Amino acid sequence: MRVAAIDCGTNAVRLLIADVDGDRLTDVVRTMEIVRLGEGVDRTGMLAPAAIERTRAALAGYAARIERSEAVAVRMCATSASRDASNAQEFRDMVRGVLGVDPEVITGEEEARLSFLGAVKGLAAPGPYLVFDLGGGSTEFVTGTDTVERAISMDIGCVRMTERHLHGDPPTARELAEAERDVTAAVDTALAAVGGRQARTLVGLAGTVTTVAALAHGLPEYDSARIHHSEISLAEVSRVTAELLGMTVEQRLALPVMHPGRADVIGAGAVIMRIVMERSGHQAVIASEHDILDGIAFGLA
């Protein structure tokens, strides 16, 4: 069964067209565009017209690819930014006009469930798992083994924390200390809510995690096959985080594995990743390239 899944988050909008056969998923198209839909939402409470237009343009391209692929089912899930915005109806109307389907503005708990479903299929490491999906506006925390047991969404993400705290280029020590206090409080709340410290295996999802993994492994270019299910130690994550925070955005852009749309927010994302590891007591994290997109696709089939 050929299906099309779209994940529209605070920073990126992503498309997966895949053939699903039972527990097996075969990619036809997997692509991403950085649209920064949530730009300024933490401050204004609204989606900016320019951000909506960037997202519309990306979705128009996706709609054409979906039509050519002859996918039999389409589902779009919109996450943190479109949950928080006061003008979310304008965004939903735009999506309906472009894709012909309504976007599902899902709860953080549903986002966590779908991310968990995509992340743990085919994972050889033992459960129970603590899965964290580090997005632009929020981070989802979910625990379970075969199915979700507990989940929570916290309003800490790489875009939100950058806009709230990290204004310098590179950020100052004071800015970093404020961000770390904010993130630590949210992570401790999440871990207590889901029992994260009792999990045997930590799994990290989304672009911050996979980019940090690529840097930790010293890859000459972004290679999803080498990143997927690779393990990164806390020491490596701490090293990469410190290096990123000491760089300007221009210097980060020169890194061969860095997506241009992630360079200005990767520092905050790496801080969140490091603190999740520190506060949960895990000395290593498994990076997964499979996440909410895969969960949406499996759900469609």
From TrEMBL:
Keywords: Hydrolase
GO MF: pyrophosphatase activity
Signal sequence annotation: none
InterPro entries xrefs: ATPase_NBD, GppA/Ppx_hydrolase, Ppx_GppA_N
Residue ranges the record marks as coiled coil: none
The organism's place on the tree of life at top rank: Bacteria
UniProt KW Hydrolase keyword: yes
Domain Ppx/GppA phosphatase N-terminal positions: 17-298
One Pfam assignment: Ppx-GppA
Name of protein: Hydrolase
Protein's organism: Actinoplanes siamensis
